[in-house]
Amino acid sequence: EAKGRGKAQSVSYEPAIGRASIERLELVEELRRAIDEEELAVVYQPVVATESGLITGVEALVRWRLNGTDVPTDVFVRIAEDTGLVVGLGELVLRRVSGDARALRDAAGGPISISVNVSARQLRDPRFVGVVQTAVRDMDRTGLVLEITERQEIGDDPEVLHVMRVIAAMGVRFAIDDFGVGFSSISYLHELPAHVVKTDATLSAGIDHDERARAVLHAIAVMGDALGLDVVVEGVERETQLEAIREEVGAPFVQGYLLHRPMPLEALLPVVRDNRHPDARPKVEELPAP
Ligand code: C2E
Ligand code: MG
Ligand code: MG
Ligand code: MG
């Protein structure tokens, strides 16, 4: 029976190996090489306190430039997840972040969190705990936040939960990313060793003109507060969205193009430095006359 199925499969799949799958195979090989040769870059997008606008942390986002063009991150991360390359990709990102942490902390003049996205595949890799341990050796471990997306149903996997608890015991925090879409489930949110909830950017899209969209985000903000979780609203692109968050949603942290775009470390450091003492900056009337 199994033999018969296998034959039927090869007959039906053969004609399907066309240009697209060959291109994808080439992309996989290019990605493998880029990871080996450490050609991937990491950029950082600030997360700010909703009321004060002060930068409280940054999210590390991986970038890949191939033949002069940026490959969209969600495209190559998905390929990396499917092929297992995400393990090496994740190690590279954690190494880079760990190396940048000191300069960032100095610029901030104190603790600042750095979030790193990790895939379920990485959490299932037996080396992962060691990789995190190495990454936090040279940095403030409570400053590291690992963002996990629920599209992979992590909460159902006892092995993954165990790894999360081991890492959390090291002082590293977890964020549930893209909350409110996909598999994210309220029912076991309180069982995960998570400190942060980041709402999916699509939930912010209509909040400046749709009362019901605001109500959904407000409900998440209230729930997060009740569970002692820091809620970050992602995808804030317009001033009117930020106003809606301040006035009605009530989430303590925001992230989005309106506040800051993702940027390389060299660009981030002066932004963080200038942002840290709002009261120390002279008011306009105190500036010397030209
Ligand atoms: P994410 O973790 O939800 O990251 C937020 C995404 O939203 C980023 O896309 C960011 O550039 C984008 N973004 C920021 N502000 C705005 C805004 O105002 N509006 C809109 N529409 N988008 C905004 P990016 O950098 O393309 O990354 C896509 C996804 O790829 C990430 O989603 C994350 O799931 C994954 N990813 C990124 N870096 C890594 C990594 O190092 N490792 C792994 N495993 N996954 C990563
Ligand atoms: Mg994220
Ligand atoms: Mg997200
Ligand atoms: Mg995501």
TrEMBL record:
Residues 24-276 form the EAL domain. This is EAL domain-containing protein. It comes from Nocardioides anomalus.
